[in-house]
Recover the amino acids of this structure.
């Protein structure tokens, strides 16, 4: 789980750097703010879940992190498909979101299958 703490923080830092390089167009600024907000929330929600008082609270907070990851991926897809931004940096961010989404889904499923609250 400590690896996830580092990965979610790295994702936020990489998005911060990426957004700083977006064009200053209205689209770049608006979508940039959205992706920045959602990507930086992922790690915050993950950190909160680490101090949950129950498995149900843990799943709930992981679910919030998952929602923010899905939103981050959505904004990144819009940047790519609208051609506001492209390139290997964007692809790397999208791949990392995909990987983190798969990990969080597996974590949530595991806690559900454990049969505990």
């Amino acid at each position: 789980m400590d690896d996830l703490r580092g990965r979610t923080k790295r994702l936020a830092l990489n998005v911060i750097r990426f957004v700083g390089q977006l064009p200053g167009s209205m689209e770049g600024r608006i979508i940039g703010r959205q992706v920045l907000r959602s990507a930086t929330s992922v790690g915050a929600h993950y950190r909160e879940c680490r101090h949950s008082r129950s498995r149900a609270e843990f799943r709930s907070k992981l679910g919030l992190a998952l929602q923010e990851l899905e939103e981050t991926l959505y904004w990144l897809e819009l940047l790519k498909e609208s051609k506001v931004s492209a390139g290997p940096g964007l692809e790397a961010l999208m791949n990392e979101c995909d990987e983190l989404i798969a990990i969080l889904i597996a974590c949530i499923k595991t806690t559900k299958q454990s049969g505990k609250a």
